[in-house]
Amino acid sequence: MQILGIETSCDETAVAIVTDQREIKANLMHSQLKEHASYGGVVPEVASRAHLDYLDGLIRQAMHEAGVGFSDLNGIAVTGGPGLIGGVMVGVMMAKSIAVVHDLPFLVVNHLAGHALTVRLTDDVAFPYLLLLVSGGHCQLLVVEESDRFRLLGTTMDDAVGEAFDKTARLLGFPYPGGPAIEKYATKGNPDAFAFPRPLVVRKAGRQASPFAFSFSGLKTAVRQTIEAIKPLSEQKIADVCASFQAAVGDILLNRTENALQWCRDNAPQVDKLVVAGGVAANQYLRGRLQAVVRQHQVAFYAPPVALCTDNGAMIAWAGIEKLQKSQVDSLDFAPRPRWPLEEL
Ligand code: KG4
Ligand code: ZN
Q1: Is the pTM above the cut of 0.85?
Q2: pLDDT digits (tens, 9 = 90+) for 184-233
């Protein structure tokens, strides 16, 4: 079985061809960094137009690289949401057109499910597992019970963790997306230089909404105030802010994840693995800290290779394979969904 996967929900136009034998025959991506650079963030209308410009060429190139024609495919998978609606519409319309013309199964994939299932493509990880989903739009702890069954333990009360990276980066003058630059600078900085807050880390009863909920707005404000106070910024000060910010994020993520691991041990002992996924999972410092925690809790740890952490077509193609294996083919009536929580699957 081999499937063409299309991802257009944010600022990456991505296309891949993946087989049920876990072979990635092609995995291409056009990043729209140049298109959005002068705006300091992703502009939805600019993104949709760029998807339109690049998608057909990328599909042709991916099929050429994989050495397959449409008649060799078993289905077309596409991100149906959540995401920037214009971009999702471009991908969905393209996938529907191909499905109609070539009489192929049309498979709508939830973008978050794509991230959540990536470790099954790369490492054949069995259900169930605890998932820390950390991206530009989300920060959640979930139990992945099946390819289409997710139990949400906690989510963010304000910003997503990737957003916190991007906003901090912007204050420091780094281009979007800021995560990689912060990670790089942090290696040269002192993580104790600034005592940034760790919202919700306190565990006393009645002091927090949920032991699994995240909050990053207090951290964001503290970073902004600190940067204002220490201007002009030297290279060393920038590195110190990055290291201190990243350490605070690490503490927050670790505390929530440990609470979730504890909850699993008490309530769902069959959940014996921790998976981290989404763009922020590309961060080596955070991966290292999570790895240390799982050793203490004696659970296995999986993280996709860095290139498959950020948005890509392979994760969508793979999630499509999991759907087709369950005969979950979608109707061509499907309407793109800007909001689509995983629990609704
Ligand atoms: O999953 P993704 O590619 O897109 C969404 O679905 O949101 O995640 C993008 C996010 C951005 O906020 C970006 O700054 C962050 O992932 N990111 C990182 C790193 N690489 C990407 N954050 C921290 N460290 C990194 N190395
Ligand atoms: Zn994503």
Answers
A1: yes
A2: 999 999 999 999 999 876 555 555 568 999 999 999 999 999 999 999 99
Token pair recorded at residue 73 = 């495919």
For the beta carbon of residue 221, count every other beta carbon within 10 angstroms: 12
DSSP annotation of 191 reads T
Amino acid code (one letter) for 290: L
Asked if residue 257 lies in contact with residue 227, where contact means CB atoms within 8 angstroms, the answer is no
Beta strands in 112-250 (DSSP E): 129-134, 139-146, 149-155
Q: What is the pLDDT of residue 63?
A: 98
Nearest alpha-carbon partner for 55 in 114, 99, 93, 14? 14
Pocket test for ligand 1, best of 84, 185, 280, 286 (most atoms within 8 A of CB): 280
Q: How far is the CA of 280 from the centre of ligand 1 (A)?
A: 4
Given a contact cutoff of 8 angstroms between Cβ atoms, the answer to whether 159 and 175 are in contact is no
Question: Where on the phi/psi map is residue 117: left (φ > 0), alpha (ψ -120 to 50), or beta?
Answer: alpha
**Ligand 1 atom, smallest distance to 278 CA:** 1
Q: In what order do the strands lie in the sheet containing 129-134?
A: 149-155, 139-146, 129-134, 273-277, 300-302
Q: Do the beta carbons of residue 149 and residue 158 sit within 8 Å?
A: no
Tell me: the pLDDT tens digits for 70-114?
A: 999 999 999 999 999 999 999 999 999 999 999 999 999 999 999
Confidence category of residue 38, pLDDT binned at 50, 70, 90: confident
